[in-house]
Specification:
The complex is a heterodimer of chains A (316) and B (325). Chain A is an alpha/beta fold and 316 residues long. Chain A has 10 helices and 12 strands. Chain B is of the alpha/beta class and 325 residues long. Chain B has a domain of 209 residues: 3-Layer(aba) Sandwich (Rossmann fold). The chains are: A alpha/beta (316), B alpha/beta (325). Bound molecules: adenosine-5'-triphosphate, adenosine-5'-diphosphate (ADP), iron/sulfur cluster (2 copies) and magnesium ion (2 copies).
Chain lengths: 316, 325
């Protein structure tokens, strides 16, 4: 079976100017990443700010051209497809539902736009489908008549989800879809995304900095650090037995609502990762509390780990 | 001994719309008190009202608002300015809003000290360097000469904490100090605050929307909803036996790693926070509450559920649940 998403040796560099006199710098946002997402599953991606999650999302959506490597979506190269075919195959849902909705249009027109852009649907068909998807995401017909500013954050995210699903794509890329929402509304949206996936057989790439959210939605999880997947495995296995020291630190830093446990010492130091200055050897070594001499000059290779995962660490 | 900060029935309005509607809470000496609630419920406005830093047009009134025995409502602007940054200090979610991009870290930290305590600039810089070491910043000497934009978000927040400590405050008000940071940096900053509290005997009013943070750092908690404190309790008791339907709902929404049941939906609270117009009466949670009936449109009693535990709801406490574990 073809995977919904297949990424091979993907790399993305940006050139940035840091100041008047200083030389151009190369930011390596995604650094030789390879993975597959089977149809109908959810790959969760976690990692600190700036580690390359959104860049990876934009590469997969075809919004950004890779420096090297390939992306296949449903077995096809997105650059070989026209915009209309691409829109029927894969759709994004972003963090900030306000920024992503045109403030001067009614919700139902915003949701209708992807259908209208195809140029193959009749007015009646568009109306029927928009009505159907609005109802599916829990927005009433009256809400469809409103402007984005007249909706709450959660309702706007529902509208953004409706717009993403109205063409019935197979694959949805969710980049921090609930990060701007309150927990009570986050729960509503996560439950909605789970229902839609089950009922419509969707595949998600789900990016979040909230590990608990990822554990809740993902079938597999990848941990990203300075542009690379440093560990990947089935969700239960990864949360039960994190192998990479960075994954362990990420998990330890989650503050679960358990009174009396205090705040853990995760021992990462104050050196922050900088994608324009990736350290030699293992890229995590300046923050790693178990680093050995070898880590400072030899980069670890990906090694398979059960049940169906990998890790990049000399000691894991 | 009386509480360090005692706020009773605080009301804040902006052109007749109420942002805070009778919030009451007490911060005891040497404890961390968390104000928790979802966005827009009035947490920041409450903090700003205590500091007399409300935006123009903000009207404040309170039955009582005292700090270390002094009545804050009767202080002049000058007296209040003498307290702020000195005996009570505040740090914000986005440190860039309170750091001046045009001045070095060192000069901004020194200025706080010379303004309130006098003394030489050299002595102030020494203290700044000492405090930066204290909050876990390596090479403080170099950092003092840097500008805010040259620091990472986590470092800037550490600088803000060091700056707030310059004059040895008794009360630190921290408004979502880690919300803009990665979970890893968040854990480091919160651990730092907890250590400072213990070592310096600091009292902290910590504002957050994150129940995980509350559980790990708070001694007492006040849960806010639509401008009111709807439940107050010692932390362990709030998590073990929450009484207000909103608190219970909120707790059920939080996915807990390791305890996730992936095929089951998360608990959630239906609907959204309602707009509260002038003349609103009764319980503000009733449009989302499964227990609402017509008595919820009338005045709601504050019910006792323990020595330091009370909540605003028509429902009686569940005493079986409240039994000590
Ligand atoms: N257009 C661009 N030009 C230059 N650098 C860029 C560009 N887009 C992203 N970057 C850099 O690439 C790196 C990865 O960015 P990316 O947005 O993918 O991070 P992220 O993991 O999504 O972070 P966050 O959690 O903050 O959303 C960062 O260092 C970022 O500054
Ligand atoms: N300067 C202001 N002018 C008018 N309304 C304000 C102002 N600041 C806050 N508000 C309103 O007060 C309410 C509480 O806001 P806030 O205290 O910032 O909430 P939060 O709990 O998220 O910190 C909100 O409805 C907000 O829109
Ligand atoms: S390879 Fe070395 S430095 Fe890298 S994570 Fe493993 S132990 Fe740490
Ligand atoms: S007063 Fe009524 S509406 Fe409000 S929380 Fe209690 S039962 Fe629910
Ligand atoms: Mg991003
Ligand atoms: Mg706020």
């Amino acid at each position: 079976m073809t995977a919904a998403i297949e990424v091979e040796n993907l790399r993305c560099e940006f050139r940035v100017h840091t100041g008047l006199m200083s030389a151009e710098k190369r930011v390596v946002a995604v650094d030789d990443v390879t993975f597959k997402v089977p149809a109908g599953s959810v790959l969760g991606i976690v990692g600190e700010s700036g580690c390359g999650k959104s860049t990876l999302a934009r590469l997969i959506l075809g919004l950004l051209k890779p420096t090297a490597g390939t992306v296949l979506v449903d077995g096809k190269r997105l650059f070989d497809l026209d915009r209309k075919a691409r829109a029927r195959l894969i759709q994004p849902v972003f963090q900030d539902p306000f920024a992503s909705l045109n403030p001067r249009r009614r919700i139902k027109d915003i949701v209708a736009l992807p259908l209208a852009a195809q140029g193959t649907f009749s007015r009646g068909e568009i109306e029927r489908r928009v009505g159907g998807i609005l109802e599916r995401v829990g927005l009433s017909a009256a809400m469809g008549e409103r402007m984005p500013s007249q909706l709450s954050g959660g309702q706007r995210q529902r509208a953004a989800i409706a717009r993403a699903l109205v063409l019935e794509p197979r694959i949805v890329i969710c980049d921090e879809p609930t990060s701007a929402l309150d927990v009570s509304v986050q729960a509503q949206i996560l439950n909605l995304l789970a229902d839609l996936r089950r009922d419509l057989g969707l595949t998600y790439l789900f990016i979040s900095h909230n590990l608990a959210v990822v554990e809740h939605v993902a079938s597999e999880v990848a941990v990203m650090y300075l542009g690379r997947f440093v560990e990947r495995n089935e969700t239960d296995a990864l949360f039960r037995k994190p192998r990479h020291p960075y994954t362990q630190a990420l998990l330890e830093s989650v503050l679960t609502p358990e009174p009396g446990k205090g705040v853990p010492d995760i021992g990462l130091g104050d050196a922050m990762p900088d994608p324009s200055n990736i350290p030699p050897g293992c890229r995590f070594n300046p923050r790693c509390r178990i680093a050995v001499e070898r880590c400072r000059h030899e980069a670890p290779m990906p090694m398979a780990r059960p049940p169906r995962g990998m890790v990049e660490c000399h000691l894991a | 001994m009386s509480a360090l900060l005692d706020v009773e029935e605080l009301q804040v309005t902006f052109n007749r719309t109420a942002a805070v509607r009778g919030a009451s809470f007490r911060v005891e000496r040497g404890e961390t008190h968390c104000l928790v609630g979802e966005s827009g419920c009035g947490k920041s406005v409450t903090a700003l009202a205590v500091m007399s830093l409300l935006a123009r047009g903000g009207q404040r009134s309170a039955k009582k608002m005292s700090f270390a025995g002094a009545d804050l409502t009767s202080l002049s602007d000058r007296e209040m300015a003498r307290l702020r940054g000195n005996r009570m200090a505040m740090i914000f979610q986005e440190p860039m809003t309170s750091l001046n991009p045009a001045f070095t870290i060192g000069s901004q930290m020194a200025e706080v000290m010379t303004r309130h305590k006098g003394g030489s600039r050299g002595a102030a810089l020494d203290r700044a360097a000492e405090l930066m070491g204290r909050v876990g910043i390596t090479a403080p000497g170099m950092r003092l000469g840097q500008f805010p934009h040259q620091l990472s978000g986590g470092l800037r927040q550490r600088v803000m904490i060091a700056m707030a400590l310059m004059c040895d405050p008794e009360l630190l008000i921290a408004d979502e100090p880690t919300t803009a940071l990665d979970v890893t940096v968040q854990a480091q900053i919160l651990r730092l605050l907890a250590n400072l509290k213990r070592e310096l005997g600091l009292s902290i009013l910590l504002i957050t929307h994150d129940l995980g943070i509350v559980a790990r750092v708070a001694d007492h908690v006040s849960v806010m909803y639509a401008g009111e404190v709807v439940e107050r309790a010692p932390t362990a008791e709030l998590f073990r036996a929450p009484q207000h339907p909103y608190t219970r709902g909120l707790l059920s929404c939080v996915p807990v790693p390791g305890r996730v049941q992936r095929d089951r939906p998360l608990g959630s609270i239906p609907g959204v926070v309602p707009a509260i117009g002038p003349g609103f009466a009764g319980c503000a949670f009733r449009s989302r509450c499964a227990h609402a009936d017509e008595t919820c449109t009338r005045a709601i009693p504050r019910r006792r559920a323990g020595d330091a535990h009370d909540y605003l709801c028509r429902l009686e406490p569940d005493w079986a649940e409240l039994q000590p574990a």
